[in-house]
TrEMBL record:
Name of the protein described by the UniProt record: C2 domain-containing protein
Statement: the UniProt record of this protein carries the keyword Kinase: no
Broad class of where this protein is predominantly found: membrane
Highest classification ranks of the organism: Eukaryota, Viridiplantae, Streptophyta, Embryophyta, Tracheophyta
Keywords: Abscisic acid signaling pathway, Calcium, Cell membrane, GTPase activation, Lipid-binding, Membrane, Metal-binding, Nucleus
Source species of the chain: Ensete ventricosum (Abyssinian banana)
PANTHER family in alphabetical order: OS07G0108400 PROTEIN, PROTEIN C2-DOMAIN ABA-RELATED 4
Family in the record: Belongs to the plant CAR protein family.
Name of one Pfam family that matches: C2
Domain C2: 6-36, 38-62
InterPro entries: C2_dom, C2_domain_sf, CAR1-11
Coiled coil: none
GO terms for biological process, alphabetical: abscisic acid-activated signaling pathway
Location(s), subcellular: Cell membrane; Nucleus
């Protein structure tokens, strides 16, 4: 883990109005793609039907991390991202200071499926002793 300055924690809060693909219920899962890394949640994958997809550009989040704004008062809004045709945001998403770090609460509208949203929380975790950006 040489040259690591921190970790991006992606917390899946919940799925809302997800498409049903199995008899009576859905066994949805989340896959996070970052560059050439692919990370799945703890569910085991099966040959399920597609549950939709969404993209989130984290460039503004990472810019807030690089600015070193984590020491602002808890809940201080650093930036607000708004839904547009270039993103999958279901509503406004704020980047805030939270307990000495940077956080973002996000609701993404799923694409390529008849319905569904996924609520995420991004949190930057600094590595003690690591160099700043």
């Amino acid at each position: 883990m040489e040259n690591v300055t921190g970790l991006l924690r992606v917390r899946v809060v919940r799925g809302v109005n997800l498409a049903k693909r199995d008899a009576g219920d859905s066994d949805a899962y989340v896959a996070v793609l970052m560059g050439d890394q692919e990370i799945y949640d703890k569910d085991t994958l099966t040959q399920d039907d597609k549950m939709g997809d969404a993209e989130l550009d984290i460039q503004q989040f990472m810019e807030a991390v690089k600015m070193g704004l984590a020491d602002l008062p808890k809940g201080f809004v650093i930036e607000t991202m708004r839904p547009s045709q270039q993103n999958c945001l279901a509503g406004d998403s704020t980047i805030t200071s939270k307990d000495g770090t940077i956080a973002q609460d996000v609701v993404l509208q799923l694409r390529n499926v008849e319905s569904g949203e996924v609520e995420l929380q991004l949190l930057w975790v600094s590595v003690p002793g690591a160099p700043d950006f």
